[in-house]
Amino acid sequence: MNAAPLAIALGDPAGIGPEVILGAWARLRAEGRLPPLFVVGGPQVLAAAAARARIDCPLVPIADPAEALFAIGAGLPVMAGLDAPYTPGAPQADGARLALASLTWATRFALSGVAVGLVTAPVAKSALAAIGFDYPGQTEFLADACGLPYRDAVMMLAGPSLKTVPLTVHVALAEVPALLSPDLITHKARIVAAALRRDFGIAEPRLGIAALNPHAGEGGQFGDEEARIIAPAIASLRAEGIDAIGPVPGDALFTPRARTGYDVALAMYHDQALIPIKTLDFDEGVNVTLGLPIIRTSPDHGTAFDIAGQGVADPGAMAAAIRMASAMAAARSGA
User: Fold this and answer.
1) Where do the domains of the chain lie, and which CATH numbers do they carry?
2) Whole-number mean pLDDT of the chain?
């Protein structure tokens, strides 16, 4: 058992976040794998969501994160003081303010050490932007809260079958070639390798690095980024002692045989990384932020406003995110 509980940020209360938090608690308890945790705010939201989705999850009010270590046996510990109306499928400004307050406090708890890490439920970026949230997403918010530049917070998607990292994230596909550089690839690859050693117990991480163009450029016929940018970066990484292979054509990197040759795949753009992980591990995919001094995981899905409140949301990814955060905390503590 970790020495401190995990803090769970509620996410947008109009989405499926409340349901999957409740469902993950019930699933992990049934599995006998429930670590100490607590939800930051939203007791009324969670109570309404549990009743509507018919999830049997007693809520235990707490005033201090330390109480979660003892309250988790009786139900789901929830810190009071932050709340909003429960309006599933209909995002509201009050809900966005609750989501931001929950994220802010959960981050503070993790930074102060009273929480061993945080797990974030999905937010609606447009709803947060409407109330003045000036970050592309939660990852950038967390990097700033930790006093780090955005480039030091690396998004990894992890599931039972695959771990993958998009080197460029929320940008238009047309912008990707200009954003790629040997420095970008080597910088993020170093962060990934260090995190796999520290948080996942992989002593000698193997990195599979994707090509950008079809057939890895076909000797320059379909683009020269492989020869000009990606291959030099791989050579630099190997010179540093990092086991990196590539550039491997994107249509070959994710085959079953290829996946046995690396621990994580580094992809050049968003969909190149997310399509395979969501195809293979959609209901158990976890978004992990690497490179931070704190642990942060999240289910690899969005708010799903279209099904919120219907009791059909699968809590598997949230349960996986909680399990992974707890395992990462144990790895950091040497437990």
Assistant:
1) 1-147+294-335 (3.40.718.10), 154-291 (3.40.718.10)
2) 95
